[in-house]
Amino acid sequence: MTEPEKLKHLLKHWIEHNDAHVKTYDEWASKAGAFGNKELSGILKEIAEESRKLKGLFEKAIEAV
User: Fold this and answer.
1) For residue 4, what are the CA distances in angstroms to 7, 14, 18, 27, 39?
2) 16, 20, 29, 31: which could form a disulfide with 44 (CB 3.0–4.6 Å)?
């Protein structure tokens, strides 16, 4: 496997890993809201949203390989 092929494979893996984290952030944002911590819930939602934006950058990186 060439270095660019390895990198493309890694980038796809990182997307999957990032998606899993987004799901976890969303779940904990809901839990934080349910136990009354609206501030924490909002922060976790913001983290999830920023992480969703990363997916687009990973996809751009794949295209650039």
Assistant:
1) 5, 15, 21, 35, 42
2) 29
C-alpha 62, offset from chain centre = 16
**What tokens were used for 7?**
């990198």
Long-range contacts of 21-26 (CB under 8 A, 24+ apart): 21/51, 22/48, 22/51, 22/52, 25/51
Query: pLDDT (tens digit, 9 = 90+) per residue, 9-54?
Result: 999 999 999 999 999 999 999 999 999 999 999 999 999 999 999 9
Taking a C-beta distance cutoff of 8 angstroms, is the pair 56, 14 a contact? no
